Amino acid sequence: MSAVPPEPDTVNLWVELTKGAVSVSVAVLAAFLALLANRFLDRDRASREYRTKISDQLRDDTRRAIEAAAEYWSKAPETNKSVLESRIRMYEQDIRAAKKVLDENCSSADKDELQESMDAFLSALMGADFEGAKVKPNSHHVVMVASLGATFRKTLARARRRQIKKGT
């Protein structure tokens, strides 16, 4: 028995339908993969922007803490300093909390450097006779707090720049 060849129009129709189905399948697959890639990139971008925002906030809190400390350590002992003491305590807590968030994606070397710099800054910020009954104006302490604060801010910026270069 011999097979009867199909009519040419039917073959052409089948080939055209198959080509269309393949091109539609490829287009649907490409669209799906593009959506997945965008979703992944958006999540990654949002995470990166969040860490940058936290880093900027931490640097800003450090600057404000330096300003509050400068005001605190330059006032006479008779001046009511309880408001400044509260602000400095608040900045200290904010700095510690924000640094914990940044530690999640830091290398161990950056973590150690940030921790050392933060500890030096906060010990100077809260050190000496902080919250003492007779706190005297101390310009040397103001200079030390400002210097250690600037070092901490520089260390933060450097660590964040390294994170961005790594893509995190």
Topology:
Blueprint (H helix, E strand, L loop, with lengths): L7 H67 L7 H22 L4 H19 L12 H28 L2
Description:
With 168 residues, the protein is mostly helical. It has a domain at 50-166: Methane Monooxygenase Hydroxylase, Chain G, domain 1 (Up-down Bundle). It contains four helices and no strands. The chain has helices spanning 8-74, 82-103, 108-126, 139-166. Helix 1 (8-74) runs antiparallel to helix 4 (139-166). The longest helix has 67 residues, at 8-74. It is elongated, with a radius of gyration of 31 Å. The protein starts with 7 loop residues before the first helix and ends with a helix. The mean pLDDT is 81.
Tags for this model:
Methane Monooxygenase Hydroxylase, Chain G, domain 1, single chain, 81% helix, 168 residues, mainly alpha, 4 helices
Mean pLDDT: 81
CATH class of the domain at 50-166: Mainly Alpha
CATH architecture of the domain at 50-166: Up-down Bundle
Into which percentage range does the β-strand content fall? under 5%
How many beta strands in the DSSP annotation?
Answer: 0
| H/E series | HHHH
Short description:
With 168 residues, this protein is mainly alpha-helical. It has helices at 8-74, 82-103, 108-126, 139-166.
